[in-house]
Amino acid sequence: MTQSNGFDSLHSHAQRLRGAAIPDLLAADAGRPARYAKRVGPLYFNFARQKYDAAALDALLALAAGRGLEAAFQRLFRGERVNVTEDRAALHTALRGDLVDAPVAHEAYQTAAAVRVRMGELIAAIERSDVTDIVSVGIGGSDLGPRLVADALRPASGARLRVHFVSNVDGAAMQRTLATLDPKTTAGVLISKTFGTQETLLNGKILRDWLGGSERLYAVSANPERAAQAFDIAAARVLPMWDWVGGRYSLWSAVGFPIALAIGFERFEQLLAGAAEFDAHVLNTPAADNVAVLHGLTAVWNRNLLGHATYAVMTYDQRLALLPAYLQQLVMESLGKRVKLDGSAVDSDTVAVWWGGAGTDVQHSFFQALHQGTSVVPADFIGTVVNDDPYVENHQALLANLLAQTEALANGQGSDDPARDYPGGRPSTLILFDRLTPQALGALISMYEHSVYVQSVIWGINAFDQFGVELGKQLASQLLPALQGTQAQVADPVTRAALAEIAARGQ
User: Fold this and answer.
1) Fewest CB atoms within 10 A around its CB: which of 89, 104, 259, 312?
2) What's the mean pLDDT in 134-161?
């Protein structure tokens, strides 16, 4: 794709810096490590190993100003209809804070706060009961965010409730989960915006039958009538969600019910408070010092100006092992678009492919390609300064590996033996938690949400719809009768051949 529209002023900088050695950028500017470092509450960010300099960064900031980024953030926070294709607001920030003088946003904040009161009452009742385990059933935004946060923040031992997540329609997932539990001491939470999601409906039926009824089933939905109709769940056990919050932005809402069950309601509110504090940073901080703006512009620089097609996230904290999977949905579902807000075709590449894993495990798998492969993969490296486990030597080794890998990728190391030569030049951003608390994790997730919005504004696309996921679902619904033994018209020849093979082998 042509990379011209809006990026003309940046091409000369990219040409100048594409082959620059990162150690040379650091050597030419002794103050770079400190000046490219930012702190927001419990989070530290350092962009000094990205392949831009002050002039290129100024050009990126000018691009953001020309795109009206500051006004775009105002529209987002104030509850204007930024989701133009669905004619909706995107008010996930109002789920966690009351930051702007706008009636729409304030009303949304009050609505969400009232639902949290109800959620807290339900949690208290469950904690007083004989329930020991919760099975949370949802998929996509109804699963990935809650699963990430619950796994990251659950106590190492002594949790009052154990929360288990099932998302995949593959029956093996539910079978393996239920095999470890007792229906007499288990409750279920079904999370679905429409209560029309096939995976959640099928898994919900399995769970209801296993429990022996709906008495210990709870639901979170924007369609409570359908929840009651499909599963006979009493209205008192149904929490609402709203169409002004997209699924991948919804963990701050009642979709976070399983989070609060896993980590406690007070710590759930701390998670929201941390996100709101970062929201305030984004709303009130000039672009040059605004971490979400810098992160988003860095992604644009790497994608559109340096031409890197993938982006990795490495979590040097095992508790954050699910973060790359969560970010895959947040970033790629939001930014995987090929048309602009006005329906015209984009004139630049949009989202990179996001992926990653947990260090130090990944050092022994795909880091060979990162260090010596032919593709450069920019990355975020995320670590925790203070550990909460008693194994100090392990934590010191973990941090040593984190720092060593970012240095090695950036600086490389020459060798007379070509097989042992490390080219370097691999850019990365370093992100450090003071320690992994609910507040800090809330702030980090908020940062990524706003970075995504920055990129969408630069590309002129809608970060809040996801029509691309629908076609495969529609085709699956049409093909299901053929797999159930009913004659169905199947136009695609490869699918017909596969169905014949399945029928022959499945008998």
Assistant:
1) 104
2) 95
Q: Which candidate, 21, 49, 9, places its Cα nearest to that of 33?
A: 49
Q: How far apart (Å, rounded) are the C-alpha atoms in residues 90 and 78?
A: 9
Phi, psi of 45 (to 5 degrees): -125, 140
For residue 4, pLDDT over 60 is answered with no
pLDDT digits (tens, 9 = 90+) for 221-271: 998 888 888 899 999 999 999 999 999 999 999 999 999 999 999 999 999
Amino acid residing at 205:
K
3-state secondary structure of 202: helix
Smallest CA-to-CA distance from 357 within 323, 334, 331 is with 323
For residue 467, give the DSSP letter: G
Residue 220 scores a pLDDT above 60: yes
268, 35 in Cβ contact below 8 A?
Answer: no
Active site residues: 333, 364, 473
Chain-centre distance of CA 128, in angstroms?
Answer: 33
Give the number of other CB atoms < 10 A from CB of residue 175: 12
CA separation for the pair 412, 21 (Å, rounded): 10
